[in-house]
Amino acid sequence: MVKFSRQVLDNGLRVLIHKDESTPMAAVSLLYNVGSKNESPDKTGFAHLFEHLMFSGTPNVPDYDEPIQNAGGENNAFTNTDITNFYNIVPVENLETIFYLEADRMEHLNINQKKLEVQQKVVVEEFKETCLNVPYGDSWHQISSLAYKEHPYQWPTIGKIPAHVEEANLEEVKTFFQNYYCPNNAILVVAGNVDENEVMKMVVKWFGEIPRGAVNKRVIPVEPTQDVFRELINENEVPSRSLNLAFHSPGRLDPDYYASDLLSDLLCNGGSSRLYRKLFKEENVFNEIDAYISGCVDPGLLIIEGQPSDEVSLEDAEQAIWNELEQIKKEGITAKELQKLKNKIETVTVFGEMSVMNKAINLAYYEMLGDANRINEEVKNYQAVTVEDFNRVANDILKRINCSKVVYTNAKS
Length: 413
Fold this sequence. Notes:
The structure is a single chain. The protein has 15 helices and eleven strands. By secondary structure, it is an alpha+beta fold. Helices cover 42% and strands 19% of the residues. The protein folds into two domains: 5-207, CATH 3.30.830.10; 230-409, Cytochrome Bc1 Complex, Chain A, domain 1 (2-Layer Sandwich), CATH 3.30.830.10. Strands 1-2-6-3-5-4 form a six-stranded mixed beta sheet, sandwiched between helices. It has a five-stranded mixed beta sheet with strand order 7-11-8-10-9, with helices on both faces. The model has no long low-confidence stretch (mean pLDDT 96).
C-alpha cells in the first residue's frame, strides 16, 4: 500500500507526497501533461525537443546539472506520446535544491536562438543516429503511420521527419513552451523520508508564485476502427528479415487494458509463453520473437515482432504466427495459465514499489490518468480479469482486419 497526501496550489500545481522511511534519499518527479500527441502534424518532435531544452539553463542557473551533482543527486527525463517527466533523486537534506531548480526552469527557461540551434542539432543528430542510419530504425515510424490515420499516435515521439525540428523557429518553440510547461499542466510528486509540512512549505515557497499558463491543448482526433488488413513491405539492405504485426488494443483507461496486457504476456513473456515456446524453442521458426503493448493513454497497439530463421520464408513465418493466434482465439486460455500471468504481474509490481523513484514516477502518472490511488489498485485490476474477459479481448484484438503488417526484407532475397 502506497500512502500519499495530495494538495493543489492556487496556480493549479498538483502536489503529491509519499513518506518512505526506508531510504535517506528523496525522489522528485515533475510530470508535464504533454507528449507527442499534443503536437501539430506539420510540427512534430517538439515535446522531445523540450526534453532537451529544459536542460539548457536559465539566467539564474546556466547549468542545470551542476547544482544537482553538487547536492549528491542525479536527474534525467523521458518523453513519450502522452507525457514528459523530469525526475531527480537527492539526499533528503538537499531536497530544496530540486524545488529551486525545477521551479526556476518552469518560470525562467532561457529559450534564445543560440540555445535553440544547439538543441536542434542534438535532436536532429539523434534522429539520424537512431532512425535513419541503423537497420529497422524507422520501424516505429512505419508501424504507427500505417496503423493510425487520424490520431497523432501516427508519428513517434522523436517526430515524423528531422525537418520539423530543424526548421522550427523561436516563436513557435516559445509558444509550445507557454502552452504546456506551466504549473496548472504539471504534477509534482515527492517520495522519501520527508516531513509533509516541511515539503509543502518549500513547494509553496518556490512554485507558489509561478503564474498559471493558458494550456492550449490540441483536440485529439479519435482513430476510426480499422476494418481492413494493411501491409507495407520494405525492400532494402538489412541484416535479417523482420516481421511486425500491429493490432489496435485498448487504451490505458479502458477496463480491457489489463486483459490486453496479459494477452501480450501470454504470447511472448517467458519460456512458457505461446509464441516463444512454440515458434522459437520447439520449431525454430524464428531467431527472435517478442510481443508487447504500447501502453498509451488512448487506444494503443499490441505488437508482435520477429526475425525468421534463415531457412524459413517470411510467408511461412507469418502463417505460423497466425496459426498460433487462431488457436488462442479458438481454444482460449486456461485458468491455470491466466493465474500464472497474473502472479508475474504482481511480482513485478511489488518489486517495483521497493524503489522510491518508481513510486514517485508512478504516482505522477496515475494522477495524470485521474486518480493517483490507481497505484494501489493495479494488481487488483489484473487479478480481476476472468478467463471469459481474456478470451473475449483476445478475439476482439487478434483479427486480421485489425492488423497492420510491416516487413523488412533484403531486395536480393
